[in-house]
Amino acid sequence: MTRPLAVVTGATAGIGRVFCDRLAERGHDLLLVARDVARLEATAGELRARHGVAARVHAADLSDEAATGALAESLGTEAVDVLVNNAGFGTTGTLARTDPAAQQRMVRVHCLAPLRLVQAVLPGMVARRRGAIVNVASVASFVTVPGTVTYSAAKAFLRVLSEGLAAEVAGTGVRVQALCPGFTRTEFHQRMGAGGTGIPDWAWLSADDVVAASLRALDRGGPVVVVPDLRYRAMVSLFRHLPMRMLTWVETRVPMRRART
């Protein structure tokens, strides 16, 4: 019997890597997408050995439109059961002083690439009347402060895209989720130069817990927006009710201001 296929971007580390393990445990074959071919092959080998599933790799830089287009074209020919748009990166610094090219890459990776991949797999999911799309956003999608403007805006795009898409496909059997974790222990913060200084231990989530929350919500059929951990859900509720001026004042003064989810 053919196993369902799950596609995970940013598959070699952190949240993406855990998604690969958990989906393989559930009997999915995998297509792993990331930039580093060696890490992709190593990760795929581990998954095959551990779970006995098929694990293929597709090396692609999703900030490159041609590479994203080639991946999307390939996915359009596959019966994709689960798509996890997890690839991403962050930068720090005010918009006036950061590299414009880096900001544009962020928009391509966080916004344009997920949109393209969703459009590639969605028609098949609707036709088969089943499927799941998880767009990994962030609690940063609910608030933006100096130094993370583009990142927060990009994550907000993913969250709003997911909410709207969920309404569009209601009744088709396709589930859509915006996963909005808080600070999560992955390579993400090291790459963006914010290794955790000033972030209290209680604020950190594990990638395992984040993925578990996502899959529980998918199994239950909702909600569309998933914020793992009660503390972060309380923070998001506060974010949604505070005036922007007050929210910005608070955010620029808390110890966590030098790192982002």
TrEMBL record:
Signal peptide range in chain numbering: none
InterPro entries, sorted: NAD(P)-bd_dom_sf, Sc_DH/Rdtase_CS, SDR_fam
Claim: Lyase is one of the keywords in the record: no
Listed EC numbers: 1.1.1.298, 1.1.1.381
A Pfam match: adh_short
Keywords: Oxidoreductase
Alphabetized GO MF terms: 3-hydroxypropionate dehydrogenase (NADP+) activity
Family indicated by similarity: Belongs to the short-chain dehydrogenases/reductases (SDR) family.
Role summary: NADP-dependent dehydrogenase with broad substrate specificity acting on 3-hydroxy acids. Catalyzes the NADP-dependent oxidation of L-allo-threonine to L-2-amino-3-keto-butyrate, which is spontaneously decarboxylated into aminoacetone. Also acts on D-threonine, L-serine, D-serine, D-3-hydroxyisobutyrate, L-3-hydroxyisobutyrate, D-glycerate and L-glycerate. Able to catalyze the reduction of the malonic semialdehyde to 3-hydroxypropionic acid.
Entry protein name: NADP-dependent 3-hydroxy acid dehydrogenase YdfG
Protein species of origin: Gemmatirosa kalamazoonensis
